[in-house]
Specification:
The chain has 109 residues and is α+β, with helices and mostly antiparallel strands. It is 42% helix and 18% strand. It has a three-stranded antiparallel sheet. It has a two-stranded parallel ribbon with strand order 1-5. The longest helix has 16 residues, at 73-88. It starts with a strand and ends in a 6-residue tail after the last helix.
């Protein structure tokens, strides 16, 4: 069993940027894109290697912009939730989301 609640969520200071090296790959990008689309946000995302040779997530626009640094706080919260789900779902037989309707998108409830 695994429980996710708002107090366990990633800090907005750390966020996905700290998680990227461990989980940022094409599957994560595709899943996050789908997750955001289901929540009502029609974003296309792109992976690109940064100058430091690490993968970075971008909004796929004519001029790509960094995703996490430019996303709204609500989109960052959803992305952080998705990152939590992505890393825990493979080894959790039961997942409990505590008070998610109060802190995340209403469509989750």
């Amino acid at each position: 069993m695994h429980c996710i609640n708002r107090t366990d969520a990633f800090s907005t200071q750390v966020g996905l940027s700290a998680v990227h090296p461990a989980i940022l790959n094409q599957d994560f990008k595709t899943g996050l894109e789908r997750f955001l689309n289901v929540m009502g946000y029609d974003y296309r995302l792109r992976l690109h290697q940064g100058l430091d040779r690490s993968q970075k997530l971008y909004f796929d626009l004519e001029t790509p912009i960094l995703f996490y640094e430019n996303a709204s706080s609500g989109i960052r919260a959803l992305a952080d939730l998705y990152a939590r789900l992505y890393t825990t779902m493979s080894h959790a037989s039961f997942l409990y989301l505590d008070e998610f309707d109060a802190f995340y998108n209403y469509k989750l409830s």
